[in-house]
Write a structure and sequence with these properties.
Rossmann fold, elongated, 5-stranded parallel β-sheet, 2 domains, alpha/beta
């Protein structure tokens, strides 16, 4: 009998794997579920399992982990980003890496624009003032008319384009930057594409939608913040590593940026004593931009359907490696 074991390194979006069993069970797969957050926990729980397939969420899937899986054929990422998986090892050893890149496009785009609008209209700041017993315009100035502002989107993939589509009715200009997409149309209308430096200098909102890679690590650093308007806001719903957090904190303290809307962070969960928690002009959400009931159902189905299709020799929903 061929190896039909699927190892789940971690899985936080469902208590019961009813959807996963309904897809994998009829195809003859056996599920072994772990609850790991560290490399050592994965090493301890995968030892002796030797799965044919793996579902990975946040736990690190390193070369040391993969060396314990000589019969592993495929890893299906329960999400979009694959920065927690050693892709070089997978390429060298013929292990396919699959993901589900479209499951939460509307949710993340909605969340990013919601953060931008809340920051520009200072909804959190004024709500906190009202709860503290204040009333009136205190804390609002300066506030600009949105239809006079420029919205900059860094990364014009599917989510970036969805953000541009949503931003256009609100803002005077929507501009983009993407070194891999010099020309971008959204609904038949071109997006003005500019250099990264030009986008930083012109934008009132700098919204990041790029993958977490060595190339994008700390792309928003002290130098980048120095190019931005002091009245501009940063939005990040992609990966925490894209922003140099120390540089952001310093820019906030020095007034070199107006604020930030952050769903992702270099440290997650964000420590209770983290200085970002001290800025009223920073909105922090706990890596939930992806979430809706519909998105989670789609993700769960596609994550395991990827494995079934791949192991049956059929094209998976999406292959990264």
């Amino acid at each position: 009998m061929p190896n039909m074991t699927v190892y789940f390194s971690d899985y936080t979006i469902a208590d019961e794997l009813d959807i996963e069993h309904s897809v994998l069970g009829p195809a003859g797969f056996e599920i072994i579920r772990a609850d790991c957050s560290t490399e050592q926990q994965v090493l301890d729980t995968i030892a002796g399992v030797d799965p044919a397939a793996m579902v990975a969420q946040w736990a690190p899937i390193t070369a040391a982990v993969l060396e314990l899986c000589p019969n592993l054929k495929v890893i299906s990422r329960n999400g979009i980003g694959v920065d927690n998986i050693d892709l070089d090892y997978c390429r060298e050893h013929g292990i396919a890496v699959l993901n589900s890149p479209s499951y939460c496009i509307p949710e993340v785009a909605d969340h990013a624009l919601a953060l931008a609008l809340a920051l520009l209209r200072k909804l959190v700041v004024t709500t906190d003032l009202v709860r503290a017993g204040e009333w009136g315009l205190g804390g609002l100035a300066p506030m600009r008319r949105l239809c006079e502002l420029t919205y900059g989107v860094v990364g014009m993939g599917a989510i970036g384009r969805a953000v541009a589509r949503r931003a256009r009715p609100f803002f005077k200009h929507v501009i983009g930057h993407d070194p891999y997409a010099p020309a971008v149309d959204v609904d038949g209308r071109p997006v003005e594409m500019v250099s990264f430096g030009q986008l930083l200098g012109r934008s009132d909102i700098v919204d990041l939608h790029v993958p977490g890679t060595d190339e994008t690590r700390h792309m928003l650093n002290a130098e980048a913040f120095s190019l931005m308007k002091p009245t501009a806001y940063v939005i990040n719903t992609s990966r925490g590593m894209i922003i140099d957090t120390d540089a952001l904190v310093e820019a906030l303290r020095a007034g070199r940026v107006a604020g930030a809307g952050l769903d992702v962070h270099e440290q997650e969960p964000l420590p209770m004593d983290h200085p970002l928690r001290d800025f009223p002009q920073v909105i922090i959400t706990p890596h939930t931009a992806f979430y809706s009931a519909e998105a989670v159902t789609q993700l769960r189905e596609e994550t395991v359907l990827n494995i079934v299709r791949f192991m049956a020799g059929e094209p998976p929903i999406n292959r990264v490696v």
